[in-house]
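We were asked to recover a plausible sequence for a given structure. The inputs and outputs are reproduced exactly as logged, with field labels preserved.

PROBLEM: sequence recovery
POSITIONS: 197
GIVEN STRUCTURE:
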């Protein structure tokens, strides 16, 4: 099942970001998020309080069935597997793979700080949970379905909210390596024996 913790949908609404409240480890210094204004920070005292408390310490904690251990959705109260109504939050590996991805084009001055399109990924975690997440870093290109991602945290005001990050891969070209013409050779180019004459 998918839990929407991204600001994509009804966005930045409390529901969307409700999943990520940190609890306030953060200093009083406001750290500007690249995507949303701090006004949209979720309430860290509701049902998702355990998630935000862990996030404030840099950990991803998610709900499991207290009886059978099944991964539960963020606000799920009753287990699909055994009907137990005991929820246990515990840290999970902050890694998974992209199940689906959407590129959001959204202009909402005053709430949305991003001025360009940004990807929102439905990530299937190794723990079996699914989270819909915006990138931790601005300018993150849309990952491909199946791409491995790690889970990090954005700061919405003083609240840490999970986001996805794409590990750098050695086979990826850096932008500055794609335009060698901008880097003039230090020595005059010698005629290449392979060049047609
Ligand atoms: Zn269960």
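RECOVERED SEQUENCE:
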């Amino acid at each position: 099942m998918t839990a929407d913790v991204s600001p994509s949908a009804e966005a930045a609404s409390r529901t969307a970001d409700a999943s990520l409240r940190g609890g306030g480890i953060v200093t009083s210094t406001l750290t500007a998020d690249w995507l949303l204004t701090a006004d949209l920070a979720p309430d860290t005292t509701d049902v998702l309080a355990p998630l935000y408390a862990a996030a404030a310490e840099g950990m991803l904690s998610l709900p499991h069935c207290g009886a059978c251990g099944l991964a539960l959705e963020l606000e799920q109260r009753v287990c699909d597997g055994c009907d137990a109504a005991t929820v246990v939050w515990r840290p999970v590996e902050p890694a998974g793979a992209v199940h689906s991805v959407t590129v959001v084009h959204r202009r909402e001055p005053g709430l949305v700080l991003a001025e360009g399109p940004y990807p929102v990924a439905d990530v299937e975690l190794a723990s079996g949970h699914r989270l819909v997440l915006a990138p931790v870093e601005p300018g993150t290109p849309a990952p491909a379905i199946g791409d491995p991602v790690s889970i990090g945290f954005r700061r919405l005001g003083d609240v840490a909210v999970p986001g996805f990050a794409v590990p750098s891969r050695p086979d990826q070209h850096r932008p500055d390596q794609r335009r060698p013409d901008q880097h003039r050779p230090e020595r005059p180019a010698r005629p290449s024996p392979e060049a047609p004459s």
